[in-house]
Amino acid sequence: MPIDPTIFTEPTATGLNDFVVRAKAATYAGGGGRVAPVRTSSHDLEYREGELVYRDSYFGGTDFLGQETVHLGDRPLWGMNYYGYLLTDGITAFTAGETVKAALTALYAEGRFLGGFRYTVGDFGYVDESSGTVERFRGVEHILTATGERAYELRYHGGRILD
User: Where are the domains of the chain?
Assistant: First the structure.
């Protein structure tokens, strides 16, 4: 699908939000887009639509740090940083990852990636709380055990990149 670059100058940035949602759904949550590591020990995912390129690069597994970017050709348009970690022995990294993937898949199906979302996966509850829009945002996602204990947390922030 060809992308009109002028969509990124609109105040609402609807086109950017829609692209980010498609890219996130196709990569981490969808299990696709793996590319060769760009940096030592990184895990890298990529999604392309014409000149638009989304990249997600992260380090670690149980506790992890990452960055997502969107470029139009050589020009960076958008970015997000995140740090996630387990808080208890009540959940494994694998279970946390599968819970997050299931919840994010449901969130992306709504055409968004930010805010005010709750989802249940087996005995775990997923909660995302954020403020802002695709242009400037921050938030936290967490997983709760059946007893209400916070077992996992990820903090994130990001927005448009302007020259």
Answer: 5-160
